[in-house]
Amino acid sequence: MGQNTGERGILTFQHVGFNKVRKAIVEGLNKITDAAFERATKLAEQAKKIPAKDRREWFEDQYSYEDREEMKKAKQEVFRGKNPNSPCKPRRTTYKRIGNTGTIGGGHNACQSYFSFVMDAETLTLRWRIGYGKNAVDSAYDAKIAPMVIEVLNKYDWKRAEGGVFYSRSEYDMDSCDENGYQYEDRISKSFGYIGWCEERRPMYSEKEAKKHLTFKKYKEEVERQKRQRNSYGYGGGYNPYAGYNTRGARRY
Fold first, then answer.
1. Share of the chain above pLDDT 90, in %
2. Would you say residue 33 has pLDDT above 50?
3. How far apart are CA 128 and CA 140, in angstroms?
4. pLDDT of amino acid 226
5. Number of Cα atoms under 13 Å in the Cβ half of residue 34
């Protein structure tokens, strides 16, 4: 069951904003790395208490399906010795932390998805890609890195010349367009900042109307309104109302 899905996009930053977001993402990536190292270390010690012939299978069973890639790395590291069933202590060098300089990136090739992102220090952009495949988008967001990056982006206070959109591709949407006589177009799945806000709403207005309605002032007013509304329901913390979903993009031909 399921469907083929994918997601892609580019977000633009000013220099100060790029550095802030990169720093927050680096911290998130390092926390994920540290947790994986601590988990592997703990399991390596526990594995010594398991009968030798059952250790590898037991080790695999301690990880969920969504953590399969983490499991493969840990298993290779823990059982790297000459005796294939004798657990070794994981090396910190295998779980390296990254620094907050230059271009950074991350991702995984696990479950049903190939996910990657790159924060390019030269272009001051974040490039996002979830390769088209069965349940790929859901698989990426069920893992650890993609949700962490989205959380950072949602908490960031976007400036005027910043933001962008992610586009999604869905097998079901493509089939529906074919059945109903529409030409399929990838839809906006998430929008960020003022640029994304404008991009998502531009089709609603003529060029003249857009200059009146799609101003940075109106964007900031709506951000504040959404924050007040969210807090009135008891939700705290950072919130970006423009990381939501739009309807399928399609036009009749």
1. 61
2. yes
3. 12
4. 84
5. 8
- pLDDT tens digit string along 136-185? 898 889 889 999 999 999 999 999 999 999 999 887 667 676 666 666 56
Residue 101, helix vs strand vs coil: coil
Measured from the Cβ of residue 106, the count of other Cβ atoms closer than 10 Å reads 21
Give the pair of three-digit tokens for residue 95.
């779980």
pLDDT tens-digit map of 95-135: 999 998 888 888 777 655 689 999 999 999 999 999 988 88
**Nearest of 143, 165, 128, 123 to residue 29 by alpha carbon:** 143
- Specify the residue for token string 């998430």: 190
pLDDT band at 196 (very low <50, low <70, confident <90, very high): very high
Task: Give DSSP secondary structure letters for the chain.
Answer: ---EEEEEEEEE--HHHHHHHHHHHHHHHHHHHHHHHHHHHHHHHHHTTS-GGGHHHHHHHTS-GGGHHHHHHHHHHHT-SSSTTS--PPPGGGS----SSS-EEEEEEETTEEEEEEEETTTTEEEEEEEEEETHHHHHHHSSHHHHHHHHHHHS---TT-EEEEEEEEHHHHHHHHHHTEEE-PEEEEEEHHHHHHHHHGGGS-HHHHHHHS-HHHHHHHHHHHHHHHHHTT--S---TTSS--PPPEEE-
What is the rounded CA–CA span in Å between residue 253 and residue 239? 38
Secondary structure class of 197 (helix, strand, coil): helix
Question: What pLDDT score was predicted for residue 181?
Answer: 66
